Amino acid sequence: MYDLNNEISTSNNSMRMATPNSFAALLSGAILATGALLVHSMYREPANLQATVMVAMSFLALSFLVFSSVQIADQWNRAVVLRLGKFQALRGPGLFLIIPFIDNIVYWIDTRVLTTAFKAEKTLTKDTVPVDVVAVLFWKVLDPAKAALNVADYQSAINWASQTALRDVIGKTLLSDMLEGRDKISALLQQIIDERTEPWGINVISVEVKDVLIPPALENAMSMQAQADRERQARVILGDSERLVAESFGEAARTYNENPVALHLRAMNMLYEGLKSNASIVIVPSSAVESMDLGGLSGMTALTMGLAQKSKSEEPRREAA
Predict the structure, then answer these.
(1) Which pLDDT tens digit goes with each residue over 173-225?
(2) Residue 2 burial by CB count (10 A; 0-12/13-18/19+): exposed, middle or buried?
């Protein structure tokens, strides 16, 4: 049985808070190291104590400023920058600067193609059959500004929009159409979800219906129905074959009735084939023998003996060969 609970997942890393980057830390460390060396050289002269303190404070402030302002965005990330609480710009990819205490990076948004699995449990189809459906949504953020500003949590919004759309489609679809036409359902889901997520700057690339689960009792009934349909089809095919064979026999009978010589040759061929394989054959006198015009019993006996002797004489030749 397909495990529904283990398949529901969302790409939670597509929106994350800003984190310090290693490049800014490296620059800050280099500034602090330079300042420490300078302070150490100035500290040897007591007269320059006040200047030494000022230099040390300056390097500390510069190091903090660099650490807070220098940012690096990966190729697939976009930084949403707010200035005094108001949207300022999107930054990235690459190196960029912000103003400490004034600019704030609220989100890093992933612009790659993401996947979200969603489901609908015990949902009634149009013909009132409860089904469990699991689907996978492929989507990407086209406008990071809209995704960050127009909706509080666009990942949860996408998940709920997908589930409600799936339930709506299931309620308007027959079970047979759902089992056979998954492509149509996937295309309809893609259209509905894309219309709902377009104001959020999100584009739905495709929707794939992964599995459709029906109750076990209904599954057994459908299996029995399919087996009965195949048996009925097999019987129909057998009846058609028998009808075609009967028609062929009727046509052959009319041909033999109009041409007795052909019937006689056919009878002789049947005798020859039987004697060639078994070296003996028993013919019971009947109307069939008379209709085939096979001759008297003496002629049949002579033909049988002649063919038997011929077959025995050919056996040593075959063994020698």
Answers:
(1) 888 888 888 888 999 999 999 999 999 999 999 999 988 888 777 666 666 76
(2) exposed
If 0-12 CB within 10 Å is exposed, 13-18 middle and 19+ buried, where does residue 47 land? exposed
CA 185 – CA 182 distance, rounded (Å): 5
Report the distance separating Cα 266 and Cα 260, nearest Å.
10
Helices (H), 75-215: 144-149, 154-171, 175-180, 182-197
Task: Count how many Cα atoms sit within 13 Å of the Cα of residue 75 in the half-sphere of its side chain.
Answer: 1
Question: What end-to-end distance do the CA atoms of the chain give, in Å?
Answer: 65
Instruction: Determine how many CB atoms are found less than 10 A away from the CB of residue 40.
Output: 10
Is 182 within 8 Å of 205 (Cβ atoms)?
A: no
Residues 2-49: tens digit of each pLDDT = 444 444 444 444 555 445 578 888 888 888 888 888 877 776 665 567
Which residue type, as a one-letter code, is found at position 307? L
Distance CA 277, CA 130 (A): 65
Backbone angles phi, psi at 227, to 5 degrees: -65, -40
Helix (H/G/I), strand (E/B), else coil: 77: strand
Residue 311: strand pairing partners = none
Backbone angles phi, psi at 263, to 5 degrees: -65, -40
Residue 140, burial from CB neighbour count under 10 angstroms (0-12, 13-18, 19+)? middle
Calpha distance 154→137 (Å, rounded): 14
Q: Residue 49 has which token pair?
A: 């104590």
According to DSSP, the residues that pair with 141 across neighbouring strands are 202
Beta carbons of 52 and 99 less than 8 angstroms apart: no
Neighbours of 76 (CB within 10 A): 15
Name the pTM for this structure: 0.62
